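Budget justification note: compute hours in this period were largely spent on complex prediction jobs such as the one shown. Inputs:
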Amino acid sequence: MKIIVCVKQVPASSNVDVDPVTGVLKRDGTNVKLNPYDLFALEMAFRLKEDMGGCITALSMGPSSALSSLLETVYMGADKGVLLSDRVFAGSDVQATSYALKCGVNKIGSYDLIICGKQTTDGDTAQVGPELAEQLGIEHASNVISVDSIDGEYITVTLNLDDVYQTQKMKLPCLLTIEKDACTPRLPSFRRKLAAPPDCIQVYTADQLEDIDRSKCGLKGSPTQVERIFPPDSDTKQIIFEGDAETLSKELYSILTSEKIV
Amino acid sequence: MGLIINQKIIDSASAQKLIDLCPFGAIKYDGQLSITSACKMCKMCVKKGPEGAITYEEEDIPKCNKDEWRGVAVFAEQRDGVIHPVSLELIGKARELAAVTGHPVTAVLIGSGTEKAEDILLRHGIDTLYVYDDPQLKNFVISSYACAFTDFIKKTKPSSILVGATSLGRSLAPKVAARVHAGLTADCTMLKMKENTDLVQIRPAFGGNIMAQIVTPNTRPQFCTVRYKIFSSSEPSEPKGKTVRMEVTREMLSGNTEVVRVVEKPREIDISDAEIIVAVGRGLKTKEDISLAKKLADALGAQLACTRPLVESGWFDPKKQIGLSGRTVKPKMIITLGISGSVQFAAGMQNSDKIIAVNEDKDAPIFKFAHYGFIGNLYEIVPDLLKMIEGGKNV
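Corresponding output:
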């Protein structure tokens, strides 16, 4: 079983701010971590490998700092990592990101299954997985809560569809996005860290992805474009109360009464 | 093409300015200035950097003929013939958007036994409803739904397409958008229409306290998804539109996925449907203190909800989480206790009718959008308040 797990390095905190006067974006870019949702995708892959044998490749697109996140996946259980890193990918929206990942998947070669996290904590879109599947011409299942059975040809999974759980049998190869808390992720192992070969992560620039079409990459390959960024609106019609607890709770009580809550 | 570095006018001082300016740490200087793969093309260096140091050259991007694409289309999600309420909210918004350009509002309905749903959609203001009705479309099979949806787009050429950001919508929209090479923006919290038919899509971005205004300037259709309870449902009236039955071909139904079984989830009161909510955040010191908030919720007949950190620390079930990665709520009243109010949390509740915030930190972002802000300690205010509620109207 050859499994590719797509992962992303995300900011560890959400401290992004716009200076209201200059419009300059301020961000603490030094603290990064592996997207927490990807941990469930990785764990699902590790368990499938334990059952079926095979090879797990972690795939990511991002700056060179993303190397550390790919190494973390190897310390957890991935066999190797592939990082696509190039300025050409700058400004990628969902479509350009999934195109770059498709080129990465083609570079890795054959696969039976691709597993993604449900979404990332920085983009929160949950779209790259399904778009990647479509670009590769395979079917996908989103929000998978369990893999019920698998053989060389088919996989049966159960997915969360808000009001119902749907169990479906899919032909391999296909792509799954894993629901949060579908399994308990393992921690990186110190023993695996010591045993990791120095060349376990391959870094590719766009030039090394032979069949890549640069017009489909980065900002140029992105149909959606960010027109402007701005701090969230604040509602002007508001009342702020300060004072001792007794005053505050009386004011709060009178609001609840006038709103007919009590 | 893209960002051009004018090395000649860059010295170590201006390089340092640019390095400090870049929010993503993507600028390096070693005698020569370079931009690394950490660049996100925010163009902050172009707009705010030393004049002419880094310039942006527009790419030559082929543009489609926007006049060929007409209408605002809504994906009408249904299960067993029952329309998901988010679809009715999208119709309300679609009517507003279409009024700007004078375009029609259409909808695509995919399922089995859809007559009742058709009637409801027409009553909510659909001009033309396109229906793919087949017993094999009863359950959500991604390949079949994607084929029918794509068929609808190719035949009717809608300019904008709105999809509810349900589990189904978030799986289907990207699949179809990728197939028709359309731009897709997830979880929009505001939508506006330009007169040139460009859909202005606003959503939280860069994983932080910041909003991005996103457009799809060169291609059509333009896809977006919107969470449940962000917009208001349109009012039903006499139907004026018509229904068009679309052919469901054998090819549409031939996929590699077979639904084995569908199990209803146990019904419980979802915080998305709650009228009154008491929400707690990191201002809560221990897990045991949840009982204090629970007492208030019970006294007010409210549902108890929480922020992401409390789910991450295992204090609450993820179903009780409000925010971009949790539930979107739109109650008549929400009382937040010890919640600072990150943009992700706000995205999940800012459309609530009345927001009451209790927090010790007067600079907390929640006070920027709460209707009533109480700067104080929840451990003092809540017990006092409970006494007054128990004491009844004579206090």
